[in-house]
Amino acid sequence: MKFSVLILLLIGINFTSFSQPKSKKLEASSYPHVYLENDQIRMKVFVPDAANGYYRATRFDWSGIIGSLVYKGQEYFGAWKNGHDPFYHEDVLGPAEVFGNLGYEEDSPNFIRIGVGLCQKPKGEKEYQWDATYKIVDGGSWSVEYQKETIVFVQELEVNNGFAYRYQKEIGIRKSGFFIKHQLWNTGKKTIATDQFNHHFFSFPPFKTGEAFTVIFDESPEVKSGFEDNRVLIQGNVLTFKEAIEEPVFLPLEHLGQNHQHGFSIQHPLNGGVKVKVDQPLQRLTLWANDRAISPENFIAINVLPSEKMEWTASYEFF
């Protein structure tokens, strides 16, 4: 049986009530969510909701936030920090995705965040503040449909600055993994030219980030000059941690190759792990980690002419 949910985030709703947000803190289980499951996987997916959603800030795409994924008894997207505030820029879980701004550099009071909506630029601000939560002027319309093993999010936004889009994200579980399929239609008059990345936030409770973890890349990257970290060792295409990680690691990586697709894998202390493949060239890559999470941040280029569409898929396989 197919279920359908229409999220109350329709074009025309006034979002001024979110200009100075006051969060109502709830247990994670209280936020709107659905479960996808098969014989091997149980996945909890939060649903976009302007009034009650798990994430209502403006840095990350509101769709596809995975609150939990258990495969053969091991959690892959556990909590990577203490506490939660729906309006705080980084309070997300799971493979959280980010699009670059549209129209921020233009002489306009507003700019677009795909997966969020039309945001208001504070008067006098000259540079985008990635860790700020902006006022949402127009969240567009959201719809969500789900079945036992798949969920589809659609956001549509049209504003009077020439930008308009239809953004669809489908998450589906497989026997031993899942996929995230994206489709972005440019329904406006201006080219959509930006980038997108996935922060991932892989977290494997009860294990803490340290020597028992290994990250393997498709290519043999090097750390960008000036960002070296003696807690991390890269030999060829293999990254390891030389000690338990307490303070965050931030490593911009170079020499990533020019392949038409890219990927990496993370192996956890029980000799299992996850392999990730994306069917797009890698634009840039950063490795971020803290004591509870490992996050290869893989960027791709987004370029969609008016009346055209771009598709891309990320595949995750557990082993």
UniProtKB/TrEMBL annotation:
Superkingdom of the organism of origin: Bacteria
Keywords, comma-separated and alphabetical: Signal
Signal peptide annotation: 1-19
Protein name: DUF4861 domain-containing protein
Lineage: Bacteria, Pseudomonadati, Bacteroidota, Cytophagia, Cytophagales
